[in-house]
Amino acid sequence: MKVLVAHNAYLHRGGEDAVVDSEVALLRAHGHEVEVYSRHNEELQQLSRPTAALQTVWSKRSTHELEALSERFQPDVLHVHNTLAVLSPSVYWLAARRGLPVVQTLHNFRLLCPQGMLLRQDSICEDCVGKVPWRAVTRKCYRDSTLQSAVVGGMQTLHRALGTYQNKVTRYIALNTFGRDKFIQGGLPAERIRIKPNFVDAPLLADAGRTQRQGGVFIGRLSPEKGLHVLAQALQHINADVTAPAPPLPLTIIGTGPLQEEIHAQFQAVAPSTRLLGRQSTAQVAQHLQQAQFLIAPSICYETFGLVVIEAFACATPVIASRHGGLGALVTDGKTGLLFNPGDPADLAAKIAWARAHPTEMAQMGQQARADYLAHYTPERNHSMLIDIYEDAISTLSGAREG
Q1: pLDDT tens, N- to C-terminus, the chain (403 residues)
Q2: How many CB atoms lie under 10 A from the CB of residue 247?
Q3: What are the residue ranges of helices labelled H in 111-209?
């Protein structure tokens, strides 16, 4: 199969960029021809505000360059990932003109929410789901800017009115049933949405679960939506519980982000033994996961997926996670980990205390998590699902033309 991948890279590389790279490598490893058309949000720094706004709504450059690449490569399918900001939804219209089926992965909630996370002031917000996102503009939801929120909200409103999302995308990929249901609620056509999770390649983890485990680990971007403040407060609850005194929790925090200095100070105050390691390699992350008794994922936002959860599963590490969104969809309470009420430090503290008091049960959950990974989140399983979606998109568009 010949696959043309289009992706707008983020200013700061994140999980979506890693998923795109992994899928491209997966397709090539299975003998498919893949061309990648990529633009980067660094380009915005070279553009005037009016030009940047126009690029976000409709990019002539993207359509011209992608058309030339399509003419040369003659792909069977166009797989789009992120379009914000300089790629723009204009690429869908180019594909329609060329009779090219489009598959769009829904990595975040951007089609429903200009901010992309359905989060406002550290609380879930669905005020714009299925509606004109004027509230996001008045509240400066995108980058705390009225202007930038208006540009993104205007782009969404225009392309909804044009029928771009309804008619120009052949198949959407949601990462789980939670995401699928939320996008249907927001107005995407249910019959066009398929479910395919992300995956991780874990060839070095055949011995996962055999090492002696201790403590917890957090892996992720050090930013407000990841809920590290909830974890810090949970540790305070544990320290203040004189009825059940326990030794300090061995805790490792891996990642970088805008709250790095603040988080360092916060955890040094409540848990001085915490190790803050910054960015780590893939191999180092796997090693830390195999050494930990559990992963802690305290996100206050929904999370569309939670790649770190299946990284933990691959390492036979159970997960203590927020009971909502993609995390709640991935972790089965009592089987592959423990779920706690989002944003509730007392409940998180109780789950951590239970996990430390029941190492045998947590080890059993880890083995079930590993089995879950092998059943659902391996590269081979993912390749099969992805090709099925491509073939479905191709046959659907072919049938529509013949009809």
Answers
A1: 999 999 999 988 888 999 999 999 999 999 999 999 999 999 998 999 999 999 999 999 999 999 999 999 999 999 999 999 999 999 999 999 999 999 999 999 999 999 999 999 999 999 999 999 999 999 999 999 999 999 999 999 999 999 999 999 999 999 999 999 999 999 999 999 999 999 998 755 545 445 689 999 999 999 999 999 999 999 999 988 767 777 889 999 999 999 999 999 999 999 999 999 999 998 899 999 999 999 999 999 999 999 999 999 999 999 999 999 999 999 999 999 999 999 999 999 999 999 999 999 999 999 999 999 999 999 999 999 999 999 999 999 877 766 6
A2: 7
A3: 134-138, 146-162, 164-167, 177-185
- Tokens of residue 33, six digits: 């021809």
Distance of CA 2 to the CA centre of its chain: 26
Residues 150 and 169: their CA atoms lie apart, in Å, by 24
Specify whether the CB–CB gap between 231 and 298 falls below 8 A: yes
> For residue 388, what are the contacts with CB-CB under 8 A and spacing of at least 6?
none
- Cα-to-chain-centroid distance, residue 36: 20
- Give the pair of three-digit tokens for residue 320: 């203590």
Q: Which two tokens stand for residue 3?
A: 């696959």
Q: Nearest 10 degrees: CA dihedral of 281, 282, 288, 293?
A: 150
Alpha carbons 169 and 191: distance in angstroms, whole number: 12
Residue with tokens 């679960």: 209
Three-state secondary-structure class, residue 220: coil
**359-376 vs 345-357: helix crossing angle, rounded to 10:** 100
CA 47 to CA 183: how far, in whole Å? Answer: 32
